[in-house]
Amino acid sequence: MSLTPIELAGDVIERCLARGFALAGVCGVDPPAHASELLAWLDDGRHGDMDFMTEALEVRLNPSRLLDGARSFVMVADLYAARGEPEVVGPGSSNARIARYVRGDDYHRVMKRRLHDVCDALRAEHPGHRFRSFVDTAPVLEREMAERCGMGWSAKNTMLIHPELGSYFALGGFATTLTLEAPTAQERIEDHCGTCTRCIDACPTGAITPYHVDARRCISYLTIEHRDRIDDSLRTPIGSWVYGCDVCQEVCPHNAPTVRGVRRSEGLVSHAYATRHAGFDLLDVLGWDANARRSAFNSSAMKRATLSMMKRNALIAIGNLAAIPESGVRMSRYRRAIEDAMWNPNEPEMVRATAREVLASLDRSLNGAGDVLGASPAVESPE
Ligand code: SF4
Ligand code: SF4
Fold first, then answer.
1. DSSP letter, residue 166
2. How far is CA 47 from CA 171, 242, 243, 305, in A?
3. In sequence order, which residues have a C-beta less than 8 Å from that of residue 233 and are 6 or more positions away?
4. Which protein residue has the closest C-alpha to ligand 2 atom 6?
5. Is 1 exposed, middle or buried (0-12, 13-18, 19+ CB in 10 A)?
6. Predicted confidence (pLDDT) per residue in 217-274, tens digit
7. SS3 203
8. Which of the four, 200, 205, 208, 213, has the lowest number of CB atoms within 10 Å?
9. Is there a catalytic annotation at residue 11?
């Protein structure tokens, strides 16, 4: 007996939830509702160097083109951190901070494996139908689709938020030629941001305007995507983040602990996302070679930042920590590390230039506090 599109959708959603996804839903292949905003954002250059955002734009704006004959999308979400989960590394620590989504196993791998399982089973049961899965690997507006699938709302900080589970989600899904119709239980979730502006107020770089993030100012973009020097005015707000930033999620009341939310979300975070490292030692990062980077990033989603980008990020974080007199860092070691990077002919110019700039800023900021480092602010070659 063949299933109706609603029954089939319910069956597919159940399969996804049974595979451990925290949320799942279905939607059609209609063009995105916010296409004009995306175009304006791109026109304004707010995507920075992320040229991939402009590639295959016709598919982003017409998702039916992702797969020949596509009739439906299935979207899924993995929770990589529970609501209310306390931060392991605090500001002012000597460790480099990394975003929560890269602290466990690579979500691309973890999610793709289960999406493939679901697609393979459906392919066997529905011969002639096609499926194409993706986790950041296709030109589709995943968050908007997840919103259409009733998985949450697109919030002022541009994250998808579920009213009970929060926003620590990784998204993925698949396109299919099967016709699926949303079950009645799947309803669009209303925007619950209301008059709240906590993420906007807390963003260290002022990157957020309601429902938009200027990627060029966002620490996630700057530390992970931007491949050049980082502008003076943005270095201090970066603090000790070296890979991503969670500030606008951490301050969101929808990620704060509530008894029901914590209980439900804790049960949905896969062991694969258990924290293997919550950060790095900044001086270690400066000493990395290609092999050390590879082994530090092993099996995590931290793939996009190159070795020189990580050293650039570490130098900025070191400069920021060293500029806080009460941070307790061993100033002389930090200063020596910056100088070593500055004069090391084997380091790329971006790393050496960043070291020069960080040292100059540090000297300027410490001048008012006396000669804390016991070293001359003048920078001279050791040769
Ligand atoms: S990730 Fe950080 S820098 Fe980017 S918008 Fe959120 S708070 Fe601002
Ligand atoms: S902090 Fe407030 S405004 Fe920002 S996403 Fe959360 S609820 Fe919305």
1. B
2. 20, 20, 18, 17
3. none
4. 252
5. exposed
6. 999 999 999 999 999 999 999 999 999 999 999 999 999 988 777 788 888 999 999 9
7. coil
8. 200
9. no
